[in-house]
Amino acid sequence: MCPFEPPLTKTQSLHIVPLGPHHHRLCLFLCLFINSLIAYPLFDLHFDLKPQEDDEPPPKRVKVSSRKGDLPKSTLLTDPASCSLNDLMSHPLVRQGDDEVVGAKGVVKKVEFVRIVAEALYSLGYNKAGARLEEESGIPLQSAEVKLFMQQILDGKWDESVATLRKIGLIDEKIVKLASFEILEQKFFELLDGKNVMDALKTLRTELGPLCVNNDRVRELSLCIVSPLKQVLAGMSGQDVVRPKSRTKLLEELQKLLPPTVIIREQRLVHLVEQALDLQLDACRFHNSLVGEMSLLTDHQCGRDQIPSQTLQILQDHSDEVWFLQFSHGGKYLASSAADCLVIIWEVKLDGLFCVKHRFSGHQKPVSNISWSPDDHQLLTCGVEEVVRRWDVESDKSISMWDLEGKELECWKGHRTIRISDLGITSDGKHVVSVCKDNMILLFGWESKAEKVIQEDQTVTSFVLSTDNKYLLVSLWNQEIHLWDIEGTAKLISKYNGHKRSRFVIRSCFGGLNQAFISSGSEDSQVYIWHISSGELVETLAGHSGTVNCVSWNPADPHMLASASDDHTIRIWGLNQVKMEHNDTVSNGVHYCNGGT
Fold first, then answer.
1. CA of 579: how far to CAs of 306, 386, 574, 592, in Å?
2. Beta-strand pair 537-542/99-102
3. What is the three-class DSSP state of 353?
4. Phi/psi at 538 (5° precision)
5. In DSSP terms, which residues pair with 236 in a beta bridge?
6. Sheet harboring 354-360: ordered strands across?
7. 3-state secondary structure string across 124-158
8. Least C-beta-crowded within 10 Å: which of 183, 346, 354, 420?
């Protein structure tokens, strides 16, 4: 904690040295909140455009002036004669029991809020403003005992700090012992570093050992004395020289260990603001573009124009129903297969247009499935009750093929393998996922041999794995799509409906930025898109004249979606440029994405 500075008078003004765009917004954010918590403004705000001459380093410089005429009037945030920040921003406090709360919802405790604002001011280097907030509000950032404890750590008063540790209100004895161990280990290292071997040995035997917290660590530390060549570097094994960690680093680690009610976490307010921004992104049902910069002054919201909704190209090289298609992992190619027994590799050009790269015509029967190799250099294709072929994408050759009755590479037998209608392998190759019965999906670990079963109430028609292998999207006979979390114990987390399926296998996919959407074909000739978190149907794409059998979202371009249909065509969907041109960047305090990828 920095020494207490004399408070500003009501007539004084604070000049904040500009640090950068992010600091400007956060500082303004803090100052507005501070003014809303007290009876009158702490200070009038001025932003200096030139560096101030001061003894403190630039990031921590604050300048106090006694009159408002030091800066041109144009630099004043408001005209004090007509309106103050307090008039604009302050709100009456609401009583909730014995605790004062702020905000319309009455859930933010004033004491906690003031403390984290004060911590933010100190962490930004505004020590005078932080001290003034503590003095004006009567709410200290830390208790007197905690301040003493922190100073003792920085001064290296190890025995005193261990004694003070028991006076700062810790209830959990385990935390007290863990914190004591961290402090005494630092004492041990500093003694050893100062060549006080006997005192270090005494600390190890009479202080660290009796705590019975980490006996393995105590044995490790003893090596520092017994065998100097195998000493430990600040808690990291396998180093040759002992170097104690900095006391500031120790204090940071203790702050993480002790409960936040005792010591406020560093940059807690910044963390809460970042959480709020993330929640805004997650809640935005149309968010599908990278955000370069988000403002704290406006709410984030994307428009519908971020979802692929316009047909950009129609591919018509197949002569029969197109059953399957899939983008390569890098998004450079699109593979499609059809009832015409043809497999076509399409290349995505820099301008976003598709052209034919290869036509594979080795199959004698309709091709029902395609799978890319992890490096996108090879392709597996499977015909209806025929063979599996492996193709080299660059050379346009069929490298090898396996008859379905061919050589057995690994046997996987049992009552659950009576009928396998769909199959997938995780990207790390460690697990295989299969539909082994009408309503049962089996996840099998190749190495662990462990099995995990997902039981549905309806017949499973198809499924797809997310790219991170954490989720499974299951299409069912009853026109529902289920999202399963398959990490740990499998659990159903969401359901999607609205599309039509009564006769055919309809395939769905994950897609969009961070796979925030799912899409599916439909027997009503349309493509359906849902927001994955909310389950809301956000778009329905019309254009095909036959059943849409399969969809695939380009993993490298969140604005590119492909659909395959019984009308013998593939449609490439992209952003509706007309809608985008009519969207302003900021409107009514809401920030809109501009569609950049």
1. 9, 47, 12, 13
2. unpaired
3. coil
4. -100, -20
5. 233
6. 322-327, 333-338, 343-348, 354-360
7. CCCHHHHHHHHHHHCCCCCCHHHHHHHHHHHHCCH
8. 420
Tens place of pLDDT for every residue, the chain, 597 residues?
444 344 444 334 334 444 444 555 555 555 555 555 444 344 444 444 343 444 444 333 333 333 333 433 332 233 333 444 334 333 444 433 347 888 888 899 999 999 999 999 999 999 999 999 999 999 999 899 999 999 999 999 999 999 999 999 888 999 999 999 999 999 999 998 888 999 999 999 999 999 998 889 998 888 888 765 444 444 444 444 456 789 999 999 998 899 988 888 888 999 999 999 888 888 888 888 877 677 888 888 888 888 999 999 999 999 999 999 999 999 999 999 999 999 999 999 999 999 999 998 888 889 888 888 888 888 888 877 667 777 788 767 555 544 444 433 333 444 444 445 677 888 777 878 888 778 888 888 877 888 888 889 999 999 999 999 999 999 999 999 999 999 888 999 999 999 999 889 999 999 999 999 999 999 999 999 999 999 999 999 999 999 999 999 999 999 999 999 999 999 999 998 765 554 444 344 443 443 333
Q: Tokens 């009928």 — which residue?
A: 419
Spatial contact of 299 and 330, defined as CB atoms under 8 Å apart = no
Amino acid of residue 110: K
Tokens encoding 444: 């099998």
Which of 32, 34, 184 is CA-nearest to residue 114? 34
Three-class secondary structure of residue 55 per DSSP: coil
Other Cβ atoms within 10 Å of 150 Cβ, number:
19
Question: Is 135:11 a contact under the CB 8 Å cutoff?
Answer: no
Q: What is the dihedral of CA 121, 122, 126, 127, to 10 degrees?
A: 130
Give the tokens for residue 70. 């030091």
Residue that has been written with the tokens 């149907």 in this structure: 537
Evaluate whether 483 touches 532 at the Cβ level (below 8 Å).
Answer: yes
Q: Which has the closest alpha carbon to 301: 3, 592, 5? A: 592
Count of residues for the chain? 597
Contact 463, 475 (CB under 8 A): yes
Is the Cα dihedral 546, 549, 552, 553 positive or negative?
positive
Closest Cα to residue 473, out of 514, 436, 517?
517
- Asked if residues 553 and 512 have their Cβ atoms less than 8 Å apart, the reply is yes
Residues 6 or more apart whose Cβ sits within 8 Å of residue 494: 482, 483, 532, 533, 535
At CA 498, angle to CA 490 and CA 326, rounded to 5?
A: 65
Give the E-state strand segments of 12-163 in sequence order.
13-16, 44-47, 62-65, 94-96, 99-102, 108-109
Furthest CA-CA distance within the chain: 92
Is the pTM value of this prediction over 0.90? no
Give the span between the Cα atoms of 542 and 309, in whole angstroms: 9
The CA distance from 25 to 15, in Å, is: 15
Which structure tokens are listed for 4?
Answer: 């207490």
